[in-house]
Fold:
Amino acid sequence: MKARSTYLKLTLYLLLLAMGTLKMQGIESRVDHLQDSTAISALDSADQGAKLVHSYAERLRERFRKSPLLITILYIVILYSIATLIILLILILLNRSKLKREQERKDYLLEVYQEQLMDYLFAEDKRPQALEDLKRVASNQMNRQVLIDQMIDLSVNLKGDIKETIKELYFLLGLEKDSLEKAHARKWHLNVKGYRELAFMNIRDANEKIIADLNSSNEILRMEAQIAMVRLSEGNPYEFLHLLEKPLSIWEQITLHELLIQHNLKVPAFKQWFASENVTVLKFALHMVSWFHQRGVGKEIISVFDHEDEGVRYTAYEVCGDLGLKMALPAMSQKYPGESFTNKLEILRSFAKVPDEKYLKFLRSVLDNEEDVQLQIQATKAMENTGEPGISLLIKLMKSKSEYKNYQIIIRHVLDGRIY
Structure:
């Protein structure tokens, strides 16, 4: 304790001495330019300042001398921080070195497996030897995983008999056990990897586990389970939608649609999901009906007009316009008065897509009764699209002088094409 006090005192003394020296140098440089009396005054002020600093430093040293516990704690914190930084640095360097070695090993294995797989697939005389080489090299988990990844990459780009040969090799090497083990693992990222592998190799042994994860709270796991079931379902690739309780996000809908196109899967009759209690599934089914232009679904779509969800009704009106369903026009005109603004707008867009002069009276009532400009514009476009009858009526309304209507300006602009 005495040595530490002496060391602290010596440090403070040197600090004060340095400060005093700096002060004196500054004062001496000014003395050369001032009169003697002013220099003496400045020197006295510097001495007083140095005394104050020295007094404060003495009080600070005395406080630390009387608080050995605080100093000890500070020493411990500093030493602990330094040790932690050194350990972290060592761990980072070791981990980086390990990752580098693993990557080099993977790169080497990829070259080996590519050559052996090519011999097995395309050189029948070398096939037995290639099989033995693959069994020998795939002796541990890391090597087997690299081999699985390489086989999946090949299966993506190959079709027909070659793809079946890869699948046979997959079973000969017992790699399906690795995929099934990952599919039933407790860690979700292993489940995802296992589902992908099983889907590529068309192995259905883990379907029950995959179906159970269709409603997982983990979004990534849920999506991977959906993607896997598209490829692993027998017959209907979207059969799992009947079991889906979680919302089907827009990204998931896009992914499922792309899978259907990419793998040339059989397109199911999407009207079977119009009764789904999952609103997102129902919307997806409606969009798919429109995308694939499925016919014979008019009555089923019209029944959706009574759905309690506003967004579902909006999608149904939109699909009717896209499919050109004239049979839906009477029902849409009846639903129009009680609908929200957004849905009214979509109904009028559908009338514009499916022009019919029989509904000019209805569209005229929209012009007369609605005050919103957007609704009036859409009604005017729908009337114009009916051809001569609608255009004649619009011209008559525009030139009418019996009573001024605000929609007369809208009609004038629509007819000369300025709004389009």
The two ends are 90 Å apart (CA to CA). Residues 68-122 form the longest helix (55 residues). The chain is about 75% helix and 0% strand. The chain has a mean pLDDT of 82.
